Amino acid sequence: MFTKVLSTFAALAVSASAAIAETNISFALDWKFEGPAAAYFAAIDNGHFAKAGLDVEISAGQGSLDAIPKVATGAFPVGFADINSLIKFLDQNPGAPVIAAMMIYDKPPFAVVGRKSLGITEPKDLEGKVLGAPPPDGAWAQFKPFATANGLDMAKITVEPVGFPTREPMLAEGKVAAITGFSFSSYLNLVRLGVPEDDITTLLMADHGLALYGNAIIVNTDFATENPDVIKGFLAAVAQGWVDVIADPAAGAEMVIKRNPAADLALETRRLEMSIRDNVATDYTMANGMGGIDPARMAKALEQLGETFTFATTPDATLYFTDAYLPDGNFPLE
Questions:
Q1: Which residues contact 201 (CB under 8 A, 6 or more apart)?
Q2: Is the pLDDT of residue 131 over 70?
Q3: Domain map of the chain by residue range?
Q4: For range 99-125, the mean pLDDT
């Protein structure tokens, strides 16, 4: 009996020790629980965070400009945000304790989406047409370097400011020939509005001269400096989550629906598949692994950002991105 009691206490002690050792992490997404968020839920549901000793709570967001301050203030130790928005934030707030530590969208989803029936099949076709662009849109913010890279004459393009809710309906109704937006969102919104898929042209800016990177895992530098192993474990779990959903997007979308029952499973599956194809599992990441950046490309990206943003100080990539928490060779995606 005494031996049994000792064994019970020993088991309880081990359990308590494990509970104490587990680190709670709050993770701030940039947007709602949609298909592209599946990898982070896979890291929870498939035990990758737990294996790293992490108990992760994921919070939805309202854009990168919402997620970045959350991490910079320390309210969240980690988040997910557009690195271009982060670069601008750090230029305006030098020394803020936030940096990108793992690139997720090797290609950003910034796109021009048009209709073949309205004469849009390539960038040059935008000349002489009406382009619908919401002024705060992330893709519109990158249109000038996109135009420069493709030799477009901006004077020949009529830009009509539109609202986010009316952007795709106006294209569906033929009131504009093209719009700026995120590739996987605008495309699927048009499909839901009844536009035939073979009539939709998606010009991903990254495939037409734009060197910019997209969304990355961002970390609070104070937290990361004090807890490097926590950050390394978190990033490794995220990478494994992406491996899981790349292998089985449908299962990943189901994890999203579990958190967002109002979403449409088929739609979010397609959204996830498009983000994997266009943004995550690119030729570069399949060859070089996920997480890192190419210095030469980043230098070009900073030049292109400078076409629409006036830097207060000389841009320096080391202020915006660190590979200190990545493994040598990055994370393989297969």
A1: 113, 114, 115, 116, 120, 121, 178
A2: yes
A3: 23-106+212-319, 110-207
A4: 98
Integer-rounded Cα radius of gyration of the chain? 22
Encoding tokens for residue 241? 């989550």
pLDDT digits (tens, 9 = 90+) for 175-210: 999 999 999 899 999 999 999 999 999 999 999 999
User: How far is residue 324's CA from residue 25's CA, in Å, rounded to a whole number?
Assistant: 19
Q: Which two tokens stand for residue 171?
A: 């294209």
pLDDT at 21: 58
The amino acid sitting at 326 is: L
Q: What pLDDT does 18 receive? A: 40
Structure tokens at 213: 């990177």
Q: Does domain 23-106+212-319 have CATH number 3.40.50.300?
A: no
**How many residues appear in the chain?**
334
d(CA 24, CA 33): 20
Q: Name 259's Cβ contacts closer than 8 Å, sequence gap at least 6.
A: 33, 41, 58
Q: Which fold has domain 110-207?
A: D-Maltodextrin-Binding Protein; domain 2 (3.40.190)
Structure tokens that stand for 136 in this block? 């705060």
Report angle CA 285, 88, 134 to the nearest 5 degrees: 85
Q: What are phi and psi of 232, to 5 degrees?
A: -60, -40
CA triple 87-38-62, angle to 5 deg: 45
Pair 109, 84: CB distance under 8 Å = no
Residue (of 118, 121, 108) closest to 182 by Cα position = 108
